[in-house]
Amino acid sequence: MPAPEPAEQGTAREWPGASNALGSEPSAYLRQHAHNPVHWRPFGDEAFAFATARDVPVFLSIGYAACHWCHVMAHESFEDQGTADYLNANFVAIKVDREERPDVDAIYMAATQAISGEGGWPMSVFLTPEGLAFHAGTYFPPKPQPGRPSFRQVLEAVREAWLERRDAVEQNARGLAAGMAEAQLSTAVSVDGPPPAVDRKLLSEAVRLLARSEDPDGGGFGNAPKFPPSAVLEFLVRHAAVPSGTSDAARDLAGRTLAAMARSALCDQLDGGFARYSVTADWSVPHFEKMLYDNAQLLRVYTHWARLEGDRVLPAGEAAAVVSRAADWMLDSLGVGGSTAPGGLASSLDADTVVDGVHHEGASYLWTPEGLEEALGPGDGAAVAQFMNVGPRGTVSALGSPLHPGRHLSGSESRLWNRVRPALREARSARPQPDRDDKVVAGWNGLAIAGLAEAGAVLDRPELVAAAENIADYLARVHWRPPAGGGEPVLMRVSHDGVARGIGGSLEDYAFCAEGFLALYAVTGKRRWYRFAETLIREACARFVVDGRLADSVGESAQVFNAQGQHPGLDPFDNAAPSGASAFAGVLLAYAAYSGSHEHRTMAGNILSVLPPLASRAPRVAGWLLATAQAAVAGPVEAAVSGPAGQRQRELHRALLSSPSPGMVVAVLAGEQARRDDDGGLPGTGHPEREVPLLESRLPAADGSPQVYLCRGMVCDLPVGSVEELAARLQAMTEDSAQGGTGW
């Protein structure tokens, strides 16, 4: 097809196949745009080939279903016929769900930040038909604002540059791609060679640097907007568990932030669950979208805080209550499927609620004093408005304010709140509710498995462990399958309605799922979960190690490969969730402790070798690497429970699961019924009948009773047979790890 002449400004041209092509897409975000007059196409070779045939640039718009400002730009620009006509005439428009395509999001986010100095969603990127970025930004308004042009002005400027200065545009695009390649090489992680030892001084220095960036008034780090620093909190909780000159400081930092978030509007005081972030420094005005990845991580961190036994700022009992509510919210609000065919957990709840056809941010969650009195009566309503900081002027909009105690409630306030909460939940459930993005993302469900399994063990709520097993079974049945072209099974990233489709999982998907399966094995003792984790780890090593270097994703898109300078990319920095590299380091370390594999322990150490400059300059983006390093210097402790199932074995097992020893791995011989149920029915997982290496040759005591073998750094102590002896030995090993040695 010959390249067409450019259309006149503002005049749409009808090209063969030119229409909105999102109607059949399973992504909730893409379907939100299926009725726009913009001729959107999904990301793929066909769309870029169309741009080549028309000889026009690509407009790439990236967002996600729960994104408030994505909705705003859609309403202002993408639903406007005149804007759509101009866009259709002069560009090929591609819409991407960032949660389905993290590879696309990552490279074009890096390009957007390099070009504009800012990043976020909606992301607006202009590309050559080869996929090279040459102009980018985020939200563009319909009319110019101070320091920000209108979307139409941007479109016209890009069109003019494409037509009048094409050579310069393409040269700049190639230069940016080369810069992306240099950046990829500068953050490359080699997995070959002996790793350097972990320097424990780095961990203490990271605590000191974090203390300098703490907000002493509102809790957390830095200024508004404030995001829950989940990975950093995990590091601080682990560091607090090992006596050192900075362990008390770590405990204080973690406790203040965890308490501030738990008592704020960021945490839904009625249903549980956490919002994505707060637009204010005191956590009083949340951005209301609720993401699975945030809640799965925070569920685990609060569980570990309760296991650490809390402190006076946030007692363990209050943390445990936060855990219970968050777990219940996740299962009730994000659960996909039913009791007969349980599925995974959905990705998110929207930031907006549609009321009378209009999007209102957080409308489901906002209250006025009058609304509280209507639901509870004048006396109780006025009291709740007072201690939940609901005033006559709404802090979010005219619709009201979120419930924000901002402090520990007194005894009488707490009793009143517990009494009226059911009535408020019922009143709120009668309102219009935010939409849910039902797609199941493998990695985020892996995080949820770990959180639910450990919460169930620590809080003695077996139904949470059962829920974690249901999710794990769903991932094994639905997400572990051969790709569309056939071949060996791969972990698919996304499923909709019980069917996996799209791209294979990224490094983070493999790492998060393996982490979840190892945590589930530690709690249940069922070998199939260990074997599935082992399979994922080995497949990840084969899939994401390219020429001796680790990559986040490989081979999914020629355009992404071009945009990153034809070098596989790796981002070692944590964002909303741990980076794939840092999560993989943690999984490799745990797997090596279970299996005795020096190869995988060495690989973990090589990933940790990127930590020193991050720990000394930017620990807030290296939380999970720091947490993994803390586990490495602790050993981690390897615990094997031998002997027959029964009360004694359960007590020893529970004591281990309740220990805050950083990164400790736990293996236990499951009871006879569990072993009969543990049929290893997961495809492609090797030999499920083999015992976990850590349990091999672990005999019961001479009288046949259970006992625990504890090892650290490939050195094992004599086994212990009582909970009291076990606690004393664990304490001694923790103190020993604080005195010296690297654990390597």
Features:
single chain, 744 residues, alpha+beta, five-stranded mixed beta sheet, four-stranded antiparallel beta sheet, disordered N terminus
Summarize the structure.
The protein has about 750 residues and is α+β, with helices and mostly antiparallel strands.
Characterise the protein shown here:
The chain has 744 residues and is α+β, with helices and mostly antiparallel strands. 48% of the residues lie in helices and 12% in strands. The protein contains 27 helices and 24 strands. A 5-stranded mixed sheet has the order 1-3-2-4-5, sandwiched between helices. A hairpin with a 2-residue loop joins strand 19 (545-546) and strand 20. Helix 9 crosses helix 10 (247-262), helix 16 packs parallel to helix 18 (507-524) and helix 21 packs antiparallel against helix 22. The chain is globular, with a radius of gyration of 26 Å.
Q: Quickly give the structural class.
A: alpha+beta
Task: Report the sheet-strand fraction.
Answer: 5-15%
Instruction: Tell me the major beta sheet.
Output: 5 strands, mixed
How far from one another are the termini? 62 Å
Q: Quick one: overall form?
A: globular
Helix content: 40-55%
Calculate Rg over CA atoms.
26 Å
Give the helices and strands, then pairings.
Layout: H1 28-32, E1 41-42, H2 45-54, E2 58-63, H3 68-78, H4 81-90, E3 92-97, H5 102-116, E4 123-127, E5 133-137, H6 151-164, H7 166-186, H8 200-212, H9 230-240, H10 247-262, E6 277-278, E7 286-287, E8 290-291, H11 292-307, H12 316-334, E9 335-337, E10 342-345, E11 348-349, E12 352-355, E13 358-361, H13 369-376, H14 378-387, H15 411-429, E14 436-437, E15 440-441, H16 442-458, H17 462-479, E16 480-481, E17 490-496, E18 499-504, H18 507-524, H19 527-544, E19 545-546, E20 549-550, H20 558-563, H21 580-595, H22 598-608, H23 611-617, H24 623-634, E21 638-642, H25 647-657, E22 665-668, H26 672-677, E23 707-712, E24 715-716, H27 723-739
